[in-house]
Write a structure and sequence with these properties.
Strand order of the largest sheet: 2-3-4-1-5
Number of domains: 3
CATH architecture of the largest domain: 3-Layer(aba) Sandwich
Low-confidence stretches: none
Structural class: alpha/beta
CATH topology of the largest domain: Rossmann fold
Largest sheet: 5 strands, parallel
Number of helices: 14
CATH superfamily of the largest domain: P-loop containing nucleotide triphosphate hydrolases
CATH class of the largest domain: Alpha Beta
Order of helices and strands: HEHEHEHEEHHHHHHHHHH
Number of strands: 5
Shape: globular
Strand content: 5-15%
Mean pLDDT: 79
Length: about 325
């Protein structure tokens, strides 16, 4: 079932009943799910949501037994793709045919191959399908059922290639607030920069894909001031260091400490790095920050980025 069919069924009051709800897609829409699930659970499942985000393999099993107080619950596991432990646990639940008493919902990257899809006890919803005007109206009617209004697309269509549910929810809020004209005229290109730019930029940065990184960087570097970029790259390098340190020690990455990192880094690109590489890069970027605050040329940041993606000696960054 695609997301449009799912939303249509909800709007018609059709029974969306299944012990397991599996949302799939290329990108985890955390803003959408955070707002959607409590309303969906209360209105259509007559239950509340319990958020299980721990990566301990036993937490889900314990939760399924202890949440029985107060009736059936919708247990949300979040983005299970971020944890190998949770992915295996979910695959085990699917293969065994979990049937209740609670409802279980989770997100998994569409590239994952889990057994159990297609069975009667699993309702799979693909969130990747292209959103159109009808989808915007379905979403708007779900979140604001008391408002009698037509929700609409930006003039000229969507401003990005891969318009997501998170994007839709954000734009709908501006329409409800009645400030859409101003947002569309002045801020839309910054709210939705082309090609998921910040996420994609981080992906090319850590993959050291020089050609694609430089093309993406030149597309959006002037959308934000140097102060933003310094904080952005420092935060990204810090989370990368935490991830590499944890993974090389045989641990499991806490998603709260790696939420900015691209999925490709968490899955494979972290293996390119030693923790010291990222410490050196972090220190070099502090030097760039000092230079900029002292009135230095803004090109020093670009010099740092070029040397990093080309794997050159960062001690030679011109400060």
């Amino acid at each position: 079932m695609n997301i449009k069919a799912f939303l249509t069924a909800i709007s018609r009051g059709e029974g969306i009943i299944a012990p397991v709800f599996c949302f799939t897609g290329a990108l985890y829409n955390s803003f959408f799910f955070t707002n959607f699930l409590p309303l969906f659970s209360r209105r259509f499942l007559n239950s509340s949501v319990e958020w299980v985000r721990g990566e301990d393999e036993g937490e889900l099993s314990v939760g399924l037994q202890t949440f029985s107080i107060g009736g059936s619950k919708l247990i949300w596991l979040g983005d299970t793709s971020a944890s190998e432990v949770m992915t295996k646990k979910v695959a085990d639940l699917l293969s065994k045919g979990y049937a209740g008493p609670h409802k279980i919902a989770f997100f998994v990257d569409s590239k994952r191959r889990l057994s159990g899809f297609g069975r009667e006890h699993v309702l799979a919803v693909n969130t990747d399908d292209e959103l159109d005007r009808e989808c915007m109206n379905l979403l708007g009617s779900f979140f604001w059922p008391s408002l009698d209004m037509q929700f609409f697309l930006p003039s000229g269509g969507f401003p990005v290639k891969n318009f997501t549910l998170d994007d839709a929810c954000m734009l709908l809020r501006y329409q409800v607030l009645g400030v859409w004209d101003r947002v569309e005229a002045c801020w839309l290109s910054r709210l939705l920069p082309a090609d998921r730019s910040l996420y994609t930029l981080g992906q090319y940065f850590f993959a050291r894909d020089v050609k694609r990184f430089m093309a993406a960087w030149w597309d959006i570097r002037f959308l934000y001031p140097p102060e933003f970029w310094i904080v952005f790259w420092l935060d990204l390098l810090w989370q990368a260091w935490l991830t590499v340190t944890t993974m090389r020690a045989g641990g499991t990455v806490d998603r709260r400490q790696s939420y900015r990192l691209p999925f490709s880094f968490l899955q494979r690109d972290w293996k390119r790095y030693q923790a010291r590489d990222l410490v050196v890069a972090h220190n070099a970027l502090y030097g760039v920050d000092y230079t900029l605050k002292a009135g230095g040329n803004e090109h020093v940041l670009e010099h740092f980025l070029c040397r990093f993606v080309m794997n050159y000696d960062l001690s030679k960054v011109r400060n």
